[in-house]
Amino acid sequence: MDSREIWERLIKTALKDTILSKDEHNFLKNVLLDLETYENTLSKALEDGIIDGGEQANLFTMRMQLIQKMYDVANMDDHITDEESELIRTTQSIINSLADIEKSSPKEF
Fold it and tell me: Which residues, in sequence order, are CB contacts of 35 under 8 Å at separation 6+?
C-alpha cells in the first residue's frame, strides 16, 4: 500500500455522501500526513528485508501516536460524527494492513 492508495481510500470514505464536511476536512488535514509518514517509515524499514528492534519500536510508537491522534482530532469539538467514525474505521483498517506487512517481514533483534 502506497501513499496514493492511502489517500484514495480516505478520500473515497470522506466523499461517500459526495460532500466533504468541515469535520472530514479537518480529520484528513491532521491525520493524512502522519499516516503517510508511517507508511514511508515502514517502506524504508523494509528496504533491507529485515525490521530490526529499533525500527520495530519506532513503528509501534508511530502507530500508537497515530491512533491517539485520529481520536483526538475527531473529538476536537467534543463530538465524533458518523462521518468521522467512518474515517476512523478506514484509517484503522489502513494501519492494520500496514502493521500486517510489518509483522510478516523477518525481524532482527
Answer: 6, 10, 66, 91, 94, 95
